[in-house]
Amino acid sequence: MIYQDSKTLLEVHGLRASVKGVEILKGLDFTVKSGEVHAIMGPNGSGKSTFAKVLAGHTDYEVTAGSARFEGKNLFDLLPEERARAGVFLAFQYPIEIPGVANSQFLRLTYNTMQAQRGHEELDPLEFDDFVREKMKLLEMSPDFLGRSVNEGFSGGEKKRNEILQMALLDPRLAILDETDSGLDIDALRIVSQGVNQLANKENAIVLVTHYQRLLNYIVPDFVHVMEAGRIVKTGDKSLALELEKRGYDWVAAERLAAAVAA
Amino acid sequence: MSSVRSIRQPAVGWLETLLAGPPQLPASPLPWINALRAQALGRLDVLKVPTLRDEEWRFTDVSPLTRQSFEPARNATDLRAADIEPFYLAEATTRLVYVDGVFAPKLSSTRTHGGVMLANLWSAEPALADAIEPHLGRHVAFSDNLFAALNAAFLHDAAVVVVPRNVTLAAPVHLLFVATQVEVASHPRCLLVAESGSGVTLIEDYVALQDGAYFINPVTEIAVADQARVKHIRVQRDSTKAFHIANCAVSVGRSGTYQSVSVALGAQISRYNLDVLLAEGAETVVDGLALIADSQLADTHTSIDHAQPSGVSRQLHKCIVGGSAHAVFNGKVVVRPGAQRTDSNQSSRNLLLTGKAQVDTKPQLEIFADDVKCAHGATIGQLDNDEVFYLTSRGLSDSVARNLLTYAFGAEIIDRIPVASLKHRLETTMLEQTGSRP
Prior knowledge:
Low-confidence stretches of chain A: none
CATH architecture of the domain at 8-96 and 172-262 in chain A: 3-Layer(aba) Sandwich
CATH topology of the domain at 8-96 and 172-262 in chain A: Rossmann fold
Number of domains of chain B: 2
Number of strands of chain A: 12
Structural class of chain A: alpha/beta
Distance between the termini of chain B: 42 Å
Number of helices of chain A: 10
Largest sheet of chain B: 12 strands, mixed
Helix content of chain B: 10-25%
Low-confidence stretches of chain B: 1-6
Order of helices and strands of chain A: EEEHEEHEEHHHEHEHEHEEHH
Shape of chain A: globular
Structural class of chain B: alpha/beta
Shape of chain B: globular
Largest interface: A-B, 31 and 26 residues
Radius of gyration of chain B: 21 Å
Strand content of chain A: 25-35%
Number of strands of chain B: 22
CATH class of the domain at 8-96 and 172-262 in chain A: Alpha Beta
Oligomer: heterodimer
């Protein structure tokens, strides 16, 4: 939601980034204020997921130009864990399986790391168990998922719920959800979306990276951006997503071409 | 691979010193044991300490062992129960304790039910002697194995467990070998006879109360009769200066099962030879973990022999190698002519934590039958960047993330230990060694 008194959370200017020497992001500008929900759409290979990973600090991606300020801090000066502790959260498109580590153990470790960072009390296993079970109700997750290894043998939908559960525990300022809707059936999409909506508030912001308009029926964006070849080329409101759904992406490029010719 | 290695010869007379040292072992009242010892001594005249030129030892240089002299253990130190209680396992109601290879009756607890025999060889009753004669010294051949011959030549104390027909022991049997003296050699021996239809869990546990150098040379023999079920957990947590050279041979009868988990954490140089022989319809699961660092070397050689049809074998061996440590795995699976419908799967997975860590792994399939299902594979790698990133993106520091992933890699094996208290203890040990404490 757009608030009058909102603060700027993230400001990205002229961002260029490459992976293995191939430039993916080619001068990207992007601003997010507190309370807002943004959707980033665009064809495959346009750089959406790369942008998400660059913001979270994946070491495979090299930032070659541009800046990103998060609540006044230079994001690119921070290690991935420092970004997380500062309040940046990335829900993974493909959450990693960690056989041998119980989900409860992992969730408590990350939660307590964040609590310590914020100067809050850490929870012992019993206290945490009560706490996390409450959060799991939000996502209609069975407590069975606590005893299993992290994401191991989880279905696609279960993995995505586990991502949003982590978001609920870590309470980030900026949550980037990378194709959280992919692989979800209709019920799971509704449940996960409801969870995200409950976590959205005036102080935080949500960036949805998605291919499909249907997610945006549940999580209504304030802004819809279209990425193409490593840049944001068009920004609109939620109606833009409906138009993209109907007409595809080609007209966006055609429109830009026409504008360029006219100029 | 061609490389020039310097082959160090053992110090002259190393073996002689080792053999000359002991006060004369008393003759056994059982003539066949005396005969066994004499045979073994005879082989020691002929056998040589292996060097890197021996195919079976090409990655494991035992010359540091042969450059130090070791005496037989002096009389058992005055250990009290309190000294070793931390090693006791809640589930194990029976326990045989050996201190520097010498049986410690006061620390042991041998009361059993259902006709199960649990004793030290030297105090064995005649009934027990009859039960073990067909097995003791018959499974681990010493004619071509210097270390096994050395063990047999010193045959005196031995942990002996006989589980009668159709008896299932609910509680595991704990064989605890405690190293208290430095610069001594000991030659532990274990024999488990599981008669047909019986079931038992055996824990073979090597621990140290000091961090010096010593030489420990165990031999374990396990006879699993038809339809018997044996679980064997072997934990080697010797001092990191110790030399641990072990041989174990298992014979599994028709439709019998043998499941083993072996964990190597300690020793400067450790070697574990495990041979499993499968009869018709027998099944085995052989899992292993070596978690080593600094300049440790851990070598595991296994052989699974499908001698008859319809056998099933599963093997997962993992190594976590830090520092400039070196892990070796050689896993042979043999399918004999006529061993049709054999089903075998073997996997060697290795994690290198540093640029100097080293792994040599060699899965080896030898198939002489045509109607079989066999698979094997090996991987050697470092921690995956995406995995580390997943954890750091949740606020965990890079080192905690790496430690947690390392722990998880090893936990897959530890989780297979069917004794909860031992499993938890090893998990804690592993957390300490990998440095993370979730």
